[in-house]
Design brief:
5-stranded mixed sheet; 2 helices
Length: about 100
């Protein structure tokens, strides 16, 4: 399973989840492989975007889940149309306490 996160910075696992996914300067992708975990960060190529383009980008990176701090109902609908489940996380840290 691949999980996507909108990020404020590119500090690996010390990155901070962005408060608004559509304005995130970076996206992180976490995936569990057979015997290891992989985490990569990409720069958001969609600084200016139309509705639905960020969910399309996340879909193109094969994510099945998007974890956000906040999101509107229409954006959730776009993600769901791509088969991507949206989950909320109130802590800005990627690290699990």
């Amino acid at each position: 399973m691949k999980i996507a996160f909108p990020l404020d910075n590119n500090n690996g696992l010390d990155s901070v989840i962005c408060g608004h996914f559509g304005h995130a300067p970076f996206f992180g992708f976490f995936e569990k492989k057979v015997e290891k975990y992989e985490f990569k960060i990409i720069e958001n190529p969609l600084k200016q975007h139309q509705p639905g383009q960020v969910p399309q980008l996340v879909h193109e990176h094969d994510a099945q889940v998007m974890i956000v701090n906040g999101i509107g109902a229409k954006a959730v609908e776009f993600f769901e149309n791509f088969g991507i489940k949206v989950e909320s996380k109130t802590e800005p840290s990627l690290k699990i306490p």
